[in-house]
Amino acid sequence: MEHALLPSRTSILVAAARALGARDPDPSVRNPDWLAERFIGPEELALIQEHPIGAAITKGYFDATQDYQVVGLMVLMIVRTRYIDEHLETAVRNGATQVVILGAGLDSRAYRFADLLQGVAVFELDAKPTQEYKMARVEAVLGKKPPNVVYAAIDFQSAGLMDVLRKAGYEPSQKTFFIWEGVSMYIPEDSVRRTLRSIAQSAAGSSLVMDFASQSARDMLSGNAGIPFTQTLNTWGEPWVFGIPDNREREFFCENGLELIELAPMFGPESMKRYLTRQDGSIVGLPRGVKEWKPPPELTSASIGAAVAARNPRFYAIAEAIVP
Q: Would you state the pLDDT for residue 309?
């Protein structure tokens, strides 16, 4: 495939992590994204060669999960994917007639949940290069997209969300479920706030699930160029630029017209128990008998600061908010 511009490399990185997690032999912790591996191949993996997961995914599951960077990303995607999947199912069963996926990347929910989403309008929004790449992969893997799926290009830093959605056929009066995964940390605060305020204009009872970094986590990455993940993001031109002020999540959503109803730290005890505990009681990514995630030596020696070294439990979290 030839493209005038390259897709977001982080979208490929996320798909690779989902694909690896989908290979876990234990179904109780397996990433449910069985399509992720079909959306990426040698051409896509070549674009993320700076990250060890690009090579790891070509190996068997056991060999692939020996690198802490690989395991950390895989674990994160297990939590993110399962949390959002659960909330998507709940929202549709509770009457949502539209689903909007913001910064869709290689998200496969419109296709994995095709039966559930019959009669539900699904809008996938992303930057044009990434979206064109996604459309080509969907055509190659599935033949064609479902008739209820609409693609619309957007630049979160300049375009008005509701303008883009209305042109795509979105009905503001209908109850809607919004997914905003893996985007907010890459765009400026004013763009994050503008997007949230647009979502707040939706019908009452509409809901949003999004993940986000804390301000201290953002500062941690931007202030420590020696961290491998920071180096990779900088190389790709996709650094973290925004984090919600520490311990002010509820106020932040309220300021933008939304009510926070659930907050789940990605590496908190509840997430570990709910999504990462195997049938034998062990935790995905941790040695047998270890029940708490701690930063590896390579990170703690790099002056990480409050977000990780002091174990701020909400340094990276996922949340559900509603339109009151």
A: 42
